[in-house]
Design a protein that fits this description.
single chain, about 80 residues, mainly alpha, 2 helices, transmembrane helix, transmembrane
C-alpha cells in the first residue's frame, strides 16, 4: 500500500511537469491552450509547472536515496 502512495506522490508532480513542458512547446508553435489569453503567460505558467514538478521529483529521489545511504559522502549527514 505504501508503494502505491509513493507512486502517486511522484506521479502527480511528474504529470504537472509534463503538462508544463507541453504548454511551453505549444507556445513555441503559437498554439493557445486552456483559454490563456497571452502566449507569454502560457509560457510562464508552463515553465512554473515544469520547474515545480521537476524540483519535487528530484527532491523526492534525493530524500529517498539519502535515507537508504546511496549518496556520495559529501551529501551524507555529518556526525560529530
Amino acid at each position: 500500500m505504501s508503494r502505491l502512495i509513493a507512486l502517486l506522490v511522484v506521479a502527480i508532480p511528474g504529470f504537472l511537469a509534463v503538462l508544463g513542458f507541453k504548454l511551453m512547446r505549444d507556445t513555441l508553435f503559437g498554439i493557445e491552450q486552456f483559454h490563456i489569453p497571452f502566449l507569454w503567460l502560457q509560457f510562464l505558467i508552463g515553465l512554473l509547472l515544469f520547474l515545480l514538478g521537476l524540483i519535487f521529483v528530484a527532491g523526492f529521489i534525493f530524500y529517498r536515496d539519502k535515507k537508504r545511504k546511496k549518496l556520495q559522502p559529501k551529501f551524507q549527514n555529518k556526525k560529530a
